[in-house]
């Protein structure tokens, strides 16, 4: 299994309510017995809680809820997000793992979750998988005060599912799955969206064929799945049977055939058509600087603008964008370039063509795609090569100044407008306070 000819043992370790746990520990509070949410109250009562403590979950509060959705009878603390602090603790935890395993056997899946190939360490430490997981979890707790949960599996997929589903049923917060136990305990698990890599869209399409669990997937005709999901059908079939051949080494060595640069944000209030255009130009500028810094050029652009829907709370997850809620468009460029002026011209044109001027804007994102090395830049008969070089030189100078003195050390006039967001976002991490 895992392409190595023998059964392997993988761990998937998750830091329990990570952001909320860090805030509790920093306040000298127990994360398991404290009512606390991580949210920015300055964004209003509709702001999303980035994390809530296990105690809040026991009280029936949903993860990723909004402040106004928390019942009035619960007395809780609100901690403003501190992304830089969370990154510091995450780095400390990563270094803790490295005291026990090689970096070649460790893959950071997110800021609070990682995969570990435990196979060679069970003999090294003369232990079993559950005891090894406990060793790592206890080391993290002793180092940071943060509790962890673990899944153990004979492949990466089973380790992740063990973490997400079976670990919750265990007193020691450690779940285990191999293929036989997977079929016995997870095949009929519902909802399907609890299973790693199955989103609401996939679940909806399966439901049209009467499938509501993984066992149902195994009973569907392969040709039907291939018609419905194309090349993704094989992955769905393999996961329905608990199979996964990918290894950590393959993940670490993977290089995508194509890359892109994406930039998006949820606006703090409803923006008019013209106000949102200001923000859009700021986003294009930031993306163009990133292109220049990476010495790459783009051959494709795309745009998505989400409207405020009257009477609804705007959510970014588990919602398909429709003409009622959003406008989107993309365009292949006539030349491969990193020119901010040209990219802005193309994206603004998409914006003016597709966005309804009468609809309030709440969310925006752009992407520059089909990236290639700067040496692959193409020109047309109307390109002023000298002007293009002057623009690129100015971008590189701006990058040097910003890298040395901070992003807000050099701003443009447009950034000083009341509706602009760049200066505020420049001091944020991941769209939240640093």
TrEMBL record:
GO annotation, biological process: DNA repair; error-prone translesion synthesis; SOS response
Identify one Gene Ontology CC term for this UniProt entry: cytosol
Cross-referenced InterPro entries, in alphabetical order?
A: DNA/RNA_pol_sf, DNA_pol_Y-fam_little_finger, DNA_polymerase-Y, Rev_trsase/Diguanyl_cyclase, UmuC
Q: Which PROSITE patterns match?
A: UMUC
Q: Which residues cross the membrane?
A: none
Please name the Gene3D superfamilies in this protein's record. 3.30.70.270, 3.40.1170.60, 5' to 3' exonuclease, C-terminal subdomain
Top-rank lineage group of the source organism: Bacteria
| Role noted for this protein | Poorly processive, error-prone DNA polymerase involved in untargeted mutagenesis. Copies undamaged DNA at stalled replication forks, which arise in vivo from mismatched or misaligned primer ends. These misaligned primers can be extended by PolIV. Exhibits no 3'-5' exonuclease (proofreading) activity. May be involved in translesional synthesis, in conjunction with the beta clamp from PolIII.
Task: State the name under which the record lists this protein.
Answer: DNA repair protein
Q: Which organism is it from?
A: Berryella intestinalis
């Amino acid at each position: 299994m895992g392409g190595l000819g023998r059964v392997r043992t993988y761990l998937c370790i998750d830091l329990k309510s990570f952001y909320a746990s860090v805030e509790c520990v920093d306040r000298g509070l127990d994360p398991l017995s404290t009512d606390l949410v991580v949210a920015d109250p300055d964004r209003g009562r509709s702001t999303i809680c980035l994390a809530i403590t296990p105690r809040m979950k026991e009280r029936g509060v949903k993860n990723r809820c909004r402040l106004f959705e928390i019942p009035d009878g619960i007395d809780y603390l609100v901690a403003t997000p501190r992304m830089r602090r969370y990154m510091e603790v995450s780095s400390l935890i990563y270094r803790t793992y490295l005291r026990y395993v090689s970096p070649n056997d460790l893959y950071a899946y997110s800021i609070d979750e990682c995969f570990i190939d435990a196979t060679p360490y069970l003999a090294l430490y003369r232990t079993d998988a559950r005891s090894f997981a406990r060793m790592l979890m206890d080391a993290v707790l002793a180092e940071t005060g943060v509790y962890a949960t673990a899944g153990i599996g004979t492949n990466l997929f089973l380790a992740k599912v063990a973490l997400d589903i079976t670990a919750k049923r265990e007193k020691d917060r450690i779940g285990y799955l191999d293929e036989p136990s997977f079929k016995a305990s997870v095949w009929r698990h519902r909802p399907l969206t609890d299973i790693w890599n199955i989103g609401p869209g996939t679940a909806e399409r399966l439901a049209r064929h009467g499938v509501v669990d993984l066992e149902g997937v195994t009973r569907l005709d392969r040709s039907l799945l291939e018609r419905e999901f194309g090349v993704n059908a094989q992955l769905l079939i393999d996961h329905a049977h608990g199979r996964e051949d990918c290894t950590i080494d393959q993940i670490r060595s993977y290089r995508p055939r194509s890359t892109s640069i994406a930039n998006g944000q949820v606006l703090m209030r409803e923006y008019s058509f013209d106000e949102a255009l200001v923000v859009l130009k700021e986003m294009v500028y930031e993306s163009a600087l990133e292109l220049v810094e990476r010495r790459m050029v783009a051959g494709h652009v795309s745009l998505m603008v989400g409207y405020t829907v009257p009477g609804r709370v705007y959510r970014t997850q588990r919602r398909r964008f429709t003409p009622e809620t959003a406008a989107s468009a993309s365009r292949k460029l006539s030349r491969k370039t990193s020119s901010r002026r040209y990219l802005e011209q193309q994206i603004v044109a998409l914006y003016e063509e597709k966005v309804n001027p009468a609809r309030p804007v709440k969310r925006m994102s752009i992407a520059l795609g089909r990236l290639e090395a700067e040496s692959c830049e193409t020109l047309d008969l109307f390109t002023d090569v000298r002007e293009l070089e002057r623009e690129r030189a100015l971008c590189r100078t701006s990058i040097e100044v910003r890298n040395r003195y901070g992003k807000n050390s050099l701003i443009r006039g447009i950034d000083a407008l009341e509706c602009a967001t760049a200066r505020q976002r420049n001091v944020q991490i991941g769209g939240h306070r640093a």
